[in-house]
Design goal:
- The structure is a homodimer.
- In chain A, about 40% of the residues lie in helices and about 15% in strands.
- Chain A is of the alpha/beta class.
- Chain A has a seven-stranded mixed β-sheet with strand order 2-8-7-6-5-3-4, with helices on both faces.
- The N and C termini of chain A lie far apart (about 55 Å).
- The interface between A and B is large, with 73 and 73 residues.
């Protein structure tokens, strides 16, 4: 029996393990240090009550013969697919009923969608980047090329016509940089993809953090995207579903390559390798899209964003370059004094008792950068801001 | 952008679509016909109350900041992994803590585990078979060879030393035939796999239907299995979780191929392409393994099995060959009078208003066979049995 040898080409990602080790070493030496963690990309506020109630009710339905649910529809229950359509409609995007597929979360679909594509495609990934885009393609033996995000292009690179890419990843608002593409910026990519029959995988996991109307929530706000883009989104950051697990993937019915419908291929993939998302969780997800659910989510996001704004403010005061901080839970800052990412990590940990994420963990272009998040508590973030103000 | 052309080699499975079409045609012509459906493989009894309560409670925890859960452990929460270990211990199998991975359901893992293996493996699949084994390998471009299940070997074929297989699927109790391997029968496969460093993918989805102590619930009851077998199981049939979605996969820590740990490869695969199972659902799943949960599940299974026993009894009376009917929810019968599977389907639908599943839909060797299930209600099954008694 032969193993998939591509796994051997994976870079062992010690990023978060190394962070955890350095922190535990520090805490062993300084057991009472008041450490504040601003490194995680995980939410901390509870679910909206309307979601909780919907899942309690759905759990009870599962305990009664008349309302019990067995296997559901592979692409998700119509009540949730319609709720997602309604959400898109709220920012002006009209989807078709069959465009929407419900998932266990964006990460699964970002990874599993690759089943539809041949091995000999060239994959274009921005650097710095969410490591999953690279690792899932390396596992499948695909060639990955990079396009540089950097201070000059505000970490929103434009297409390079000299690169002949087949599959293009775009994450906006971006993880880790917090940078957001404008419609014009995305239009360049849509045109590039349509011209060469490439495909865009658009990761919209952080769209709910956008408040500036200049920025699109969905790539389908851009003309031409329905013939070149798959959009993958999640309720993890929108509604605090990181531990509840639900997302959705949009594959427009008219998206074809090699004369085949990608929507139909994905349906075939999912009906063969998946059995749908829990009814209970789908009920909780549908509650997100009620007026009450949306209002509570907006309140939670405003809380995280106020944290992020406070972090950005101190950088503004000190004249430190950063991206994000506004339409994103992340602040991506240039480490002052030309410090390397890990040097700055050690400085913050040792001198300020603040834990963040070294930018070099997200790719070569992340060297010298550092990520802080607004997902902590207000109190802790306020203390962190005061400490940063003194140091920087 | 090039598509995965292996999808073009998939046989379009019209089995259940064709069944649905023939039924709706019949009902259009006979709108009041009292049709009884014994074709589905889906459960109909509600979840145990202890599961419902656990999920209600977990839903409420998600609505309170102090008990809210974000991202969980990739392999599942320790409370559920330990509960699964305890369940295995109850029939004498001692697993290691890290052997257990929690999943969204057996189908996902049966499919996704293939990511670990090279394309140029030879896959051995019994015929008749659950179509997912074949389709997932065809999608990945792997060569599939078959071994015949038939009346002579009681649909539990033994290894054929002339076939050089790398990956071997065994489903016991079997879907669709209901046949169950003895320990001795499985030992032949374990020895075959260990000798040639092949790998067994053991699908134990129906293990909870075994009552005869002569039959193993787990392949790890067989000596040598920890060095050659991955076991995939589900709460779908054990506890009625088809719409709730939770299962588990066992990869023994000592299972290695090419000097690599399959347990570690799977952990890497899951941490890259998956984000764990919902906390709420894992709490519901853990409740299955409480004394109260197990008692309720046993009661539900006894209900389905009594239905199955009634179906088997009428076949015994009429001297019709079948497998299953005892340690399985399925009865797999030889259509009387040498009828083909679809002929018998039409006969049952038209003359008895009973819907079953033609065996030919599960592979060439299924031709002339027919599957009935015990998942209907008692009342409907009793009526069906009376109708069958008159016809056969």
């Amino acid at each position: 029996m032969k193993l998939n040898k591509n796994f051997r080409n994976l870079q062992d990602s010690y990023l978060f393990a190394t962070i955890a080790n350095r922190l535990s070493d520090y805490l062993a030496a300084h057991p009472d240090a008041p450490v504040i963690k601003l490194g995680i990309g995980d939410v901390t506020l509870p679910l909206p009550q309307v979601c909780v109630q919907a899942m309690e009710e759905a759990s009870r339905e599962m305990g009664v013969k008349e309302t019990f649910k067995g296997y559901g529809d592979y692409p998700g229950y119509p009540f949730l697919r319609e709720a997602v359509r309604g959400y898109y409609r709220s920012y002006g995007v009209e989807l078709k009923a069959n465009d929407v597929f419900i998932s266990d979360g964006a990460k699964n679909d970002v990874a599993n969608i690759l089943d539809l594509f041949a091995q000999d495609n060239t994959v274009l990934v921005p650097d710095p980047v969410y490591p999953v885009y690279v690792d899932t393609n390396v596992m499948a033996g695909r060639k990955v090329v990079y396009i540089s995000g950097n201070a000059e292009n505000g970490f929103t690179p434009s297409p390079d016509p000299s690169i002949d890419a087949d599959i293009i990843y775009i994450c906006s608002p971006n993880n880790p940089t917090g940078a957001v593409y404008t419609k014009e910026g995305l239009k360049e990519w849509v045109d590039y993809a349509n011209e060469r029959q490439a495909l865009i995988l658009f990761d919209a996991a952080y769209e709910a953090f956008i408040e500036d109307p200049a920025y699109p929530h969905s790539i389908y706000e851009v003309e031409g995207a329905r013939t070149c883009a798959i959009e993958i989104c999640s309720l993890s950051k929108t509604a605090g579903f990181t531990g509840t697990r639900c997302g959705y993937t949009i594959i427009p019915e008219e998206l074809e390559r090699d004369g085949e419908s990608l929507n139909q291929l994905w349906l075939r993939r999912q009906s063969t390798k998946h059995n749908g998302v829990s009814y209970i969780i789908q009920r909780g997800a549908a509650a997100v899209f009620t007026p009450e659910g949306l209002a509570q989510c907006k309140e939670n996001i405003a809380y995280y964003k106020e944290n992020t704004r406070m972090l950005a403010k101190v950088l503004d005061e000190k004249g430190i370059f950063y991206t994000g901080g506004k339409n994103s839970p992340y602040v991506w800052l240039k480490a002052p004094g030309g410090k390397k990412s890990w040097e700055f990590f050690d400085l913050l940990l040792n001198d300020l008792n603040i834990v963040g994420t070294p930018g070099s963990g997200f790719g070569e272009n992340g060297e010298g950068y550092f990520r802080l998040t607004g997902f902590g508590s207000r109190e802790q973030t306020e203390i962190a801001v005061e400490r940063l103000r003194k140091l920087l």
